[in-house]
Specification:
Blueprint (H helix, E strand, L loop, with lengths): L13 E3 L2 E3 L3 E3 L11 H13 L4 E8 L12 E2 L6 H12 L4 E7 L15 E2 L3 E2 L7 E4 L2 H20 L4 E6 L5 H6 L14 H4 L1 H14 L4 E9 L9 H12 L5 E6 L2 H4 L13 H4 L10 E3 L6 H9 L5 E4 L1 H5 L3 H6 L14 H7 L33 E5 L3 H13 L2 E5 L7 H6 L10 H12 L3 E4 L6 H7 L3 E4 L3 E3 L19 E3 L1 H5 L9 E5 L5 H12 L3 E4 L15 H10 L3 E3 L2 E6 L3 E6 L5 E5 L2 E5 L2 E3 L2 H9 L4 E4 L9 H14 L6 H6 L13
Parallel strand pairs: 3-4, 3-14, 4-5, 4-6, 6-10, 7-9, 10-11, 11-12, 12-13, 13-14, 15-16, 15-18, 16-17, 18-29, 20-27, 21-22, 21-27, 22-23
Antiparallel strand pairs: 1-2, 8-9, 19-28, 24-25, 25-26
Bound molecules: adenosine-5'-diphosphate (ADP) and iron/sulfur cluster.
């Protein structure tokens, strides 16, 4: 197959030290919640990226020593030779498809919890750990620095033995010792490792030299470096020390992998950073200072943008974490000129949230992410239909669209109906909110595909009741009827409906999304949900008026969004927009032109005057149609999916729809059997 000339440069091989990447598609290191706890799942996921055409596939940060123990997070681990076999499963899966395997060696210094190992944490200077725990890291003395260099060197040797082609020295995300030494704010040393930039860079220089000496004949040595902390003069800046570092080390690494720091800046969501490629403004100077290949990131999913970056000499390799998660077959699709088939990352950071919660990775756009080994799911392949059959999917939200699409791909005749004039369900509604426009891609990507297929009929403006469903005569029915936000106040902190409230208008997020905005007078938003919706609505209403109070039982707004790396930005945005925040408070009662709040600790009451209350509490599942059809009986399959089954994230709804389609007509129990494919620790050596 000939690649479209427009994108041909993306498929040129790139020499990286002693190894050669077959093309310019580079999956940079990214966390995934699998790591040393779930090595087969990790290998399955990484191998799938290699199958999808990525020329380089990397691990996540990989702990080199017990003094860098990231428990409870499941990252990579290469403490000693016993870790090699698990890592070999990954390199083997990557090599099988002709890709290079890279390992991101990491020592996390004062960013390591050491909860498992109870080993003292290390840092350039004495300092509190980077978590709210009552423990400190100690300043490394010269013996510690020598030991650390030896651990890094030994880890590099083990990495080579495990089959890695590229070995990283990692100074990024404000997470690792080389960067901690480099940043003046974290390095108060008075010896040759502190003070001047030359001194603060000494450790990095030594690591690069020693990694080269150890494995440089066989493996490329990559340097991952955060050139800018996006903190202006309060942090490292690309225009100043960031640039100076690149000048000083220019030809030392075989590859520069450059980004911004910390993680919340490197993995910004579309809500706060809508522009794909946003990091290039910080990183693209690097190419001018080195002859070594440079890889950069910034949610790069557009092939035209990628080709332009290479053509203009801004990058040599197109780095991706999230775009490779949303579409592991992105390179293969570009090669086949199937651009329209690319599932674009929506920048929601649900993938990040899974890792932050210690669970295996998932993705809103790609429901097979993390299920490659456990369930044997392939993002591009699905079993053909077992036997000819027709299916009806009611509801064209994320669950219904995904279910219909996968059933259609399997070859079934699919009818998709929705009461609304537009498809998309909650995706269409939520993506109209401030900052969430990119979420629309969840519906758009699926609709585009569905509309190409001859075996799908979609009916809009079609509310169906049980009689209408039965009249269609389709025996297999999937109900993706969704959920609506409750209007009665019932939620986490209030299990009984609220009473009272004369003169206070009650609204829900659905009202806001459907254009029914609060009337004149002060507005209270009660965010008992504590995820993104309450903060998004406050942000939206604050652009229209200045009398908004957000009440939350939590100590901060949108606490769940800490997992998506957004909480700080949300709180900042609301404060800057003039939203009053009443934290640690629950909605106790609705009064006359006011609400009564109760302190979640003392119960002490206070009142807030308001004309309207937006209740962001719980959602009620839309199950009336299910109940009616169940009572009628007679259908071969009647399955509730998505938010009608379990209100959750859009990612959960997509996953639910996908799963239902995968297991339609499968052997009974196949779904459950697959779920229980587990990685169980073996106990080969007693006492070790
Ligand atoms: P999910 O997230 O599970 O996909 P959504 O709430 O996004 O759920 O979408 C549910 C969709 O189902 C909405 O677009 C709604 O209009 C549609 N719907 C709900 N009940 C019916 C019904 N009885 N007939 C047709 N469409 C329905
Ligand atoms: Fe992109 Fe969201 Fe998928 Fe992460 S979960 S890769 S941010 S679409």
């Amino acid at each position: 197959m000939t690649v479209n000339a427009r994108y041909a440069a993306l498929f040129e091989p790139v020499r990286i030290g002693p190894v050669t990447a077959k093309n310019r598609f580079y999956q940079v290191p990214h966390c995934n919640g699998m790591g040393h706890l779930r090595p087969r799942a990790e290998a399955g996921m990484r191998g799938m990226k290699a199958a999808g055409g990525w020329g380089v596939v990397s691990t996540q940060e990989t702990e080199i020593h017990p003094s860098s123990d990231l428990t409870p997070y499941a990252e990579g681990r290469i403490w000693d030779a016993r870790d090699i076999p698990a890592l070999r499963v990954m390199t083997g899966a990557v090599h099988e498809h002709g890709a290079l395997a890279a390992v991101q060696l990491a020592h996390n210094g004062f960013h390591a919890s050491n909860i498992l190992t109870r080993t003292p944490a290390l840092a350039p200077s004495d300092m509190a750990l980077d978590f709210a725990v009552p423990a400190q890291a100690r300043a490394m003395d010269k013996a510690d620095i020598r030991a650390f260099r030896r651990w890094h060197r030994d880890a590099a040797l083990r990495a080579r033995e495990a089959g890695f082609d590229i070995v990283y020295v990692y100074a990024g995300h404000r997470m690792t010792l080389p960067q901690h030494f480099l940043l003046p704010a974290l390095n108060a040393r008075g010896d040759e490792y502190g003070g001047s930039l030359e001194n603060r860079l000494r450790l990095t220089r030594e690591l690069l030299e020693e990694t080269h000496e150890a494995v440089g004949g066989d493996c490329a040595v990559a340097f991952r470096f955060a050139v800018d902390e996006m903190a202006g003069p309060d942090g490292m800046q690309a225009a100043e020390e960031g640039r100076a570092v690149v000048e000083m080390l220019a030809e030392m690494p075989d590859l520069w992998d450059v980004n911004v720091s910390d993680w919340s800046n490197d993995s910004q969501t579309t809500r706060f950073q809508p522009e794909d490629g946003y990091q290039l403004a910080y990183t693209d100077f690097v190419k001018g200072l080195t002859t070594k290949p440079v890889v950069g990131v910034g949610r790069l999913s557009s092939p035209d943008q990628m080709a332009a970056l290479v053509a203009k000499g801004r990058l040599d390799l197109i780095g991706a974490a999230r775009p490779s998660i949303a579409d592991p077959f992105l390179p293969a699709k570009i090669a086949a000129d199937r651009i329209e088939a690319i599932r674009e990352c929506i920048g929601c950071n649900i993938c990040v949230a899974a890792d932050n919660l210690g669970g295996p990775i998932r993705c809103t756009q790609n429901p097979t992410m993390g299920e490659e080994w456990r369930r044997g799911w392939h993002p591009e392949e699905i079993a053909p239909k077992a036997a000819a059959a027709a299916a009806l999917v009611v509801g064209a939200g994320p669950a219904g669209l995904e279910c219909a699409l996968q059933l259609a791909r399997r070859g079934y005749d699919v009818t998709l109906a929705d009461a609304a004039p537009e498809p998309g369900g909650r995706v269409a509604r939520e993506s109209a909110l401030k900052g969430l426009g990119a979420w629309r891609r969840v519906a758009d990507n699926r609709l585009y595909d569905l509309r190409q297929r001859g075996n799908v009929e979609m009916y809009l403006n079609s509310p169906l009741d049980a009689a209408a469903v039965l009249e269609l005569g389709i025996a297999n029915v999937f109900l993706a009827t969704g959920a609506r936000w409750r209007r009665d106040g019932v939620g986490r902190t209030c299990r009984a409906p609220l009473t009272g409230g004369g003169g206070v208008a009650i609204l829900t997020p659905d009202d806001i999304m459907e254009g029914r905005l609060p009337g004149a007078g002060p507005v209270v938003i009660y965010d008992d949900d504590q995820a993104y919706m309450g903060g998004v609505i406050a942000d939206l209403l604050a652009t229209l008026r200045d009398d908004i109070t957000l009440v939350t039982p939590a100590p901060v707004v949108s606490p769940w969004c800490a997992h998506t790396l957004e909480q700080g930005r949300i709180q900042t945005a609301l404060l800057e927009a003039g939203v009053r925040i009443e934290a640690n408070a629950r909605l106790a009662a609705l009064g006359e032109g006011r609400v009564d709040l109760a302190c979640v600790y003392t119960g002490a009451r206070r009142q807030v005057d308001c004309a309207s209350v937006v209740l962001v509490t719980e959602r009620a599942r839309e199950t009336a149609l299910y109940e009616a059809l169940r009572d009628e009986g007679g259908l071969s399959v009647l399955e509730v999916i998505g938010d009608a089954q379990m209100p959750g994230l859009i990612a959960d709804a997509v996953y639910s729809g996908h799963r239902a389609a995968r297991y339609f007509q499968a052997d009974p129990g196949a779904a459950e059997a697959a779920l229980y494919r587990r990685e169980i620790p073996s106990l080969p050596e007693e006492g070790r």
